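User: Reviewer 2 asked us to show a designed sequence for the structure in our supplementary figure. I'm pasting the structure tokens here. Could you produce the per-position amino acids so we can include them in the response letter?
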């Protein structure tokens, strides 16, 4: 039996609180069960030096976990002088995902940075961050259009992300920590609302994932993302 008696294909309770960071041009508090990620999008009227003069902008992300987001305190990475390899990998994943659905030329020569801060972690922090980051980005570009800084919304697609894994031989959607730590295989999927694949990360822990198992995970995640996108749409309209 899954925690909270969830069905194998069921998401955890999910909610999105728009405008959770009032000083940011766009923000969203993404809640997936006991995982809570605050995503704040900031507009900067500059681009990275290597992009200047090219007539296009940039979208990137930073990711961090608060010291007591987990059961035991984790040291702030700033005290070590650099982000860990895991943090860098997640930041790049979020940034790549957002750029996949953004017309950087339409954005103009400016940058949007989405800060994803994990307030509480119970599995699936990177997928919650991506899903909330898209909402924060969407709100930020909406602000740019409303302020007549740009004419058209450069975010041309919708996306969300979810985890899936094999636990006790079963394919399960949206793993929480107690499942993730014993999973025989786990994967993270980033899909667009129309089913396009943006990125897939899959890892086998005990034995290789069979083609049949991967297809089961893929199918669960595709349907889960469709549900998340519907929730995103409702959050934007609220």
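Assistant: Here is a per-position design you can include in the supplement:
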């Amino acid at each position: 039996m899954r925690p909270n008696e969830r069905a194998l294909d069921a998401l955890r309770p999910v909610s999105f609180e728009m405008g959770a960071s009032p000083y940011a041009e766009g923000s969203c508090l993404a809640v997936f069960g006991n995982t809570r990620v605050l995503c704040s999008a900031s507009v900067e009227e500059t681009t990275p030096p290597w992009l200047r003069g090219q007539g296009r902008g940039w979208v990137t992300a930073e990711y961090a976990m608060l010291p007591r987001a987990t059961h035991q305190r984790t040291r702030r990475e700033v005290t070590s002088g650099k982000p860990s390899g895991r943090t860098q990998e997640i930041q790049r994943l979020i940034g790549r995902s957002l750029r996949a659905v953004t017309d950087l030329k339409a954005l103009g020569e400016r940058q949007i940075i989405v800060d994803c801060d994990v307030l509480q972690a119970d599995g699936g922090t990177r997928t919650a961050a991506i899903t909330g980051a898209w909402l924060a980005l969407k709100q930020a570009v909406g602000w740019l259009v409303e302020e007549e800084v740009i004419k058209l919304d450069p975010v041309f697609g919708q996306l969300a992300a979810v985890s899936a894994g094999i636990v006790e031989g079963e394919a399960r959607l949206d793993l929480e920590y107690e499942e993730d730590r014993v999973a025989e295989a786990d994967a993270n999927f980033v899909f667009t609302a129309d089913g396009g694949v943006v990125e897939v990360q899959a890892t086998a822990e005990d034995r290789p994932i069979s083609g049949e198992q991967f297809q089961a995970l893929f199918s669960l995640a595709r349907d889960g993302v469709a549900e998340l996108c519907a929730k995103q749409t409702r959050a934007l309209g609220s």
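For the response letter, you might also mention the following. The chain has a mean pLDDT of 95. Helices lie at 85-99, 104-107, 125-146, 177-180, 211-237.
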